[in-house]
Amino acid sequence: MNLHSTKQNKNTDQQVQIRWLIRRDMPEVIDIERECFDFAWTEEEFLCCLRQRNCIGMVAEHDHEIVGFMIYELHKSKLRILNFAVAAGSQRKRVGTQMVGRLIDKLSQQRRKEIVLEVRETNLNAQMFFKNQGFRAVTVLRNHYDDTTEDAYYMRFKLDASEADEFTRENRISEYFDAA
Ligand SMILES: CC(C)(COP(=O)(O)OP(=O)(O)OC[C@H]1O[C@@H](n2cnc3c(N)ncnc32)[C@H](O)[C@@H]1OP(=O)(O)O)[C@@H](O)C(=O)NCCC(=O)NCCS
Q1: Across the strands, what pairs with 118?
Q2: CA 132–ligand 1 middle distance (angstroms)
Q3: Which atom of ligand 1 is nearest to 133's Cα?
Q4: What distance in Å separates the CA atoms of residue 76 and residue 74, rounded to the nearest whole number?
Q5: What is the pTM of this model?
Q6: pLDDT tens digits, residue range 105-155?
Q7: Where would I find the beta strands (DSSP E) of the chain?
Q8: Any residues with CB less than 8 A from the CB of 4 and at least 6 apart, and which?
Q9: In angstroms, what is the span from residue 104 Cα to ligand 1's centroid?
């Protein structure tokens, strides 16, 4: 494969079907999880989370293969993303964009107003991705993780963000507190 075809593949959108996660998807979901994260969730952690009444799992399929997944919680006025990943071979093909798009559609249908998530401070790719989707970092959560000493950025997407909010808060950590 020459450089030219690599670039073409990288930029080709991959259309996906997004559906509920079911039990037999778990092996593929776990493979993606392990490929994407140093501190991967175990199958037990997925199942424990998905047993909660307000927790939803969805997968993105392309050609009958799972290429991405997301786990999120339903709260009264917001959705909270707990886990979100796209298989390495399908990254930069708008799979993640389609998954976030689905969540944004759900917000408007369900009268919820925002989507929130925590991103590790070292995960620049995810920060760039969620910023590209309209999320903004609003808080630093100090020593947020059990497995490392790193901080988390709390990022938020607001359905009806006013222009004023966009101008004053873009690219800025607007609040700051120590979660410890
Ligand atoms: C972050 C992640 C979900 C993005 O999914 P994706 O399907 O690759 O993203 P998309 O193709 O929809 O990207 C849309 C835009 O986001 C930005 N973006 C996405 N990945 C990026 C990266 N690695 N570096 C910089 N910008 C990036 C770009 O602006 C991109 O548009 P472009 O490709 O035209 O430049 C994916 O890389 C992933 O699963 N990473 C590992 C797991 C992870 O970090 N999950 C998030 C935990 S909070």
Answers
A1: 154
A2: 9
A3: 16
A4: 7
A5: 0.87
A6: 999 888 899 999 999 999 999 999 999 999 999 999 998 888 888 999 999
A7: 17-20, 55-62, 65-74, 78-86, 114-120, 136-141, 152-158
A8: none
A9: 17
